[in-house]
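Table 4 source record.
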Amino acid sequence: MSCFSIACLIVLVVLLGKLDGMPYAHWAYRASPNAVIAIVATADRAALLFPVAICLSQFKWNQYHQQQRLYNLQMVDQASRGIWGSLRMISSTRPSLATLGAVTLILSAAIDPLTQQILTFPTRVVSASNETASAQTAHVYLPSDPDEDNTISLTVLSSTYGSGSSQEPTCSTGSCQYPDFVALGACSQCEDVTSRTTQDCSALSLTASTIGEALNGTAFEKAAVNCTYTTPGGLQITPSLYATVGTTVGNENGEEFTKNKWTFANTGIGDLNLSDSQGPHLAGILNPVLGLAVAEYSNPYIVYTVENLTAAESKPQITECALYLCAQKYENNTYSSDDRSLAPSKTEQLFVNGTFSLFYSNDLVPGSNSTASFASNDSYSIQGITVMQMVNSFSSTISLSDEIEAGWTISMDDGDGASPVMEKIATGITDAIRTGPNSTTVTGEAFTTQTYISVRCYWAVAPIVITVLSIMFLVAIIIHTGRAKGAGVWKSSALALLACRLKQGTEYPDLHALGASEMEKIAKGMHVSWEDDEPLTLAVNADNAVR
């Protein structure tokens, strides 16, 4: 049985080694892994309990090769029968070799619950075979028929008037990773240039506007309400008046002028340069594809009295923006249900290599002053007509902003500012280029969540230690039996117990005539050992008699 216990232990160790890290889906049996482990552990426990019990039974005879209490015979015999007897023996007798067997028997009760703790079933993210993960990129945008391609125009319009979605990569599992790649695209940048904007205010021309004609002949015709603002990039904004009404300020008559809350100015086709030579900077960007200036009044109502007719108004908030062509580097690209788009980690402005051509393709390169340029590793091109479509479409959104309650109007009224709208336009153009006629596919890796079997080896220590203790106890009892004079290999034999004779003399009462409690009391004080001349005879040592 000890060999069978060792075999069960070997099977357990080998099984745990094969199970550790195995995907749970690869387990092809109806019985769960825990059930199989429990069966092996139960077989191991049953196999080790038998020799432990037999060895304890043998020790009850072996111990009397020297003087021992007769009571120990009962204690060791009860220990061989189960956990409760083992606990009683440990608590009522001095430590001996039998204590090792009793401890082993007690600890064996923990094998079943402890082996249930060996396996856990966590999850991990693994590569998913036969799943799709891809993203689009492009270094050029050269449609076969530029005159018929309206993709960029529609993209600018849709991005301005409500659509802000970005191009999502393909990921069939919902969790993917993609290699680093570079794409041609558009970037935007906006700056608050209020403090650097010049202001020039004067009275209205009395004949150039309806409001001017209405004020003709009144004191307020001299009010300095006609203001022009020039940004650092050279864009000029003249916020217009659309209403005026008489009012009272204290005891004085006043005139309340209402200006448009926001006013725009932008560059056009004639301003296209796109070279890295000298040129205007808008929002810090040299020669962008297009520039935008926005004047926004936090309070569009301006009141004048006779005393402040020539005073200039407080500046509105002036924002300067630029949209420019750029190379975008996408690094550490991941996709999940929480982050459903890819975003560039680095961008670098691109300029036309030479003179910008409106009707032909234009090669794009990083600026001549760029250092450590990642964009210099690739070549980029864009059709001139495509650039023209960007500018014209953008200009149309500005010119229609006073008439269509969408796009710029909604953005400014909601307080988002010009920067988010410019960013949506840049993202839309980038996505259109990446998925355009010259698009290439970047193949990524799809991942899925997998349940696997994890072996916690420290929980397997208990059955191993208990099995080792049982083997040690067996070997120790075999050696002890060989050295125990007077004791035979009787183990748990009832016949040996019946044949055993107690030689006690007259100093003790006859145990046969006593009750159980009295017999136990006498046995605790009666020290016996094997009689040398007579087999199966325990002789009492009279010097240790308890009366």
